[in-house]
Amino acid sequence: MTWRSILISKPARLSLQQNHLLIQQDDIIPVPLEDIAVIVVEAREVVLTAPLLSALAQYGVTLLTCDEQFLPCGQWLPFAQYHRSLKILKYQMEMSLPHKKQLWQQIVKQKIRNQAWLLDYSGHDIAAGRLNALADGVKSGDKDFAESQAAALYFRVLFGDQFARSHDNAVNACLNYGYSIVRSAVSRSLVQYGFLPALGLQHRSELNAFNLAYDFIEPYRPLVDLLVWESRLADELPGILTPKIKQKLVSLLHCQIKLDGRSYSLLAAIDRTVQSFQAALTGNSKNLKLPEMLPLKVQDYE
Fold first, then answer.
1. pLDDT at 207
2. Residues that bind Mn(2+), according to the entry (predicted)?
């Protein structure tokens, strides 16, 4: 089971040695590849070897590179590891529009319910009730734009009346960073199970190679919001993204979330959501397993 997330924020040489990632900085640190879920490379002076890249693909490790603002901008994914990729692709391509709308309805409902949980958890029970009422009324394809209505209320209540997602501030920087990390985990899982990420349900941009990942991240976003809200409450958000907060956001992949009545790490829950998508493609849209919120805590492994 993968359980490590690695942030490379200083110059380093990354290479392969006996199925281990070898990190050469001031010290030399070997890490078993079978333990690694994601590697985020944000330092500009990092060298990676070709054998390591091949091994990362074979082990299903996600490698993220960052831009000049230290936000993830590129992703290395395994190629054609699933044994029935063509079968899955046919399912995706043959999916009817009404079926896509029903699946999107389930996703939006659960996203709003998770947002409502966080508002209630943060002491805003009246606003939480309004969101739960919105969730109950989501229609096929979300034709009444309940998702947008919920977001307009949710972010203002959680982060203050003056807050807007378009503003350039520490909260939005943390949210964007965290969403990028979670979206990369969704993309990783989609590819591992043979799905073509470009074929989305609601997201259909011709310029986006990861439309399906943008669909499935939605009910998982509130876990990022929870971490950022708690960090802000504890006065741990300076004006810029610090290595400490970035490491917390990367480590979010190992925090608990509820799925199908059980507690899983975020990474394991994403895998189960993607696995259930095949059953939802060929059957009832309610076969899709979506996450429910839990307080922020690292998942215990047994």
1. 81
2. 147, 203, 218
